[in-house]
Amino acid sequence: MIIVMKKNAEQGQLDDVVAWIESSGYKANVSKGVERTIIGAIGDERGKIKLKAVETMRGVEKVMLILQPYKLASRESREDDTVIKVGEVEIGGPKCVVIAGPCAVESEEQLMEAAYAAKKAGASMLRGGAFKPRTSPYSFQGLGEEGLRILARAREKTGLPIVTEVMRGSEVELVENYADVLQVGARNVQNFALLKQVGLSRKPVLLKRGMMTTLEELLMSAEYIMASGNHQVMLCERGIRTFETATRNTLDISAVPVLKEKTHLPVIVDPSHATGQWQFVRPLAKAAVAVGADGLLIEMHPDPDHALCDGSQSLKPEKLYKLMEEIESIAKIVRKGYGQKHGLHQS
Ligand code: PEP
Ligand code: MN
Predict the structure, then answer these.
(1) By CB atoms within 10 Å of each CB, which of 48, 109, 138, 224 scores lowest?
(2) Domain 84-334 is found in CATH 3.80.10.10
């Protein structure tokens, strides 16, 4: 059960509600968001009738019974789409947001060139990894804090907000000092300690689906972040592992409408990691927008042939310019009414 407190609820009123929940045999999970406080009453739903009485307590706006195991993330808990604001950029609103940039920050020159190209293309945010999760310990691991400093300088020059990955709970504080959005990568989607830590941050989180994660598991991971107090979570479909080996992963395109039904959180699609090959990025990016993705994460590199990471799936800047035009015309058709209801109701 979810108890939503009024915007102006006082601490004393919150304490009273928590005490009542606990005396009813439930565990109270208090989640303080920027806008309002939400309490998850965790326990056997059979006691719900008793718990429902909390509705009349001072400071309480509403009480909701949620059937899914993920509570705060569920569409039931919030009918309206969540719109996440990063500076001027809105994710989950009427515009389809494009996040573009190289897999990894390699040098100041490389990142600056990519940043200006992303800006010129009309991308809304710049991506680039400073801490890279690589399959081989001998591969380029990222520039670390120096990479973060370069990203911050690129933001200064272009005005584009920065999306970058954080791999360890102990590094959240460091990364959030530079980043506008914290990325949790596919390999860390069930690193619950990290999820709790980014849940304590006030920076929005881009949570990538793991290569073997069900949508319910992905939503449970989002729930970890939200239960720790950070409600600004965007989900990212980046391809899953299947028997097919022609592409790096298999883009689960149906994840977009399914997630849109199950959750109010914005959904981003990453066709770069899904396919692993630059020539497939364009068609799948267009498909993603057509099925209602709120944004795209696209790897772009000024010189893919010499990239230190994921060059084969990176678009050259000119290819991104072209793709942006196509995306815009598709988005115009499919995104009417987004940022309000999820658009799946038949009228
Ligand atoms: C990335 O975005 O560069 C990345 C490593 O992605 P994923 O975690 O989806 O593999
Ligand atoms: Mn990559």
Answers:
(1) 138
(2) no
Q: Are 61 and 46 in contact (CB under 8 A)?
A: no
Annotate 247-299 with DSSP letters as a single string: SSSB--TTHHHHHHHHBSS-EEE-HHHHHSSHHHHHHHHHHHHHTT-SEEEEE
- Residue carrying structure tokens 């990479």: 147
| Sequence ranges of the chain with CATH classification 3.30.70.1140 | 2-64
Q: Looking at ligand 1, which atom is closest to the CA of residue 187?
A: 8
Which amino acids bring their CB within 6 angstroms of ligand 1? 103, 129, 133, 185-187, 208, 238, 273
pLDDT in tens, 37-90: 999 887 776 666 677 789 999 999 999 888 899 999 999 888 889 999 999 999
The answer to whether the beta carbons of residues 162 and 154 sit under 8 Å apart is yes
Ligand 1 atom nearest 185 alpha carbon: 8
Question: Of 141, 151, 183, which is best to mutate to test ligand 1, by the most ligand atoms within 8 angstroms of its C-beta?
Answer: 183
- DSSP run (H or E) holding 29: strand 27-32
Residues of the chain with CATH 3.20.20.70: 84-334
Is the model's pTM score more than 0.85? yes
Helix, strand, or coil here: 322? helix
Cα(116) to ligand 2 centroid in Å equals: 19
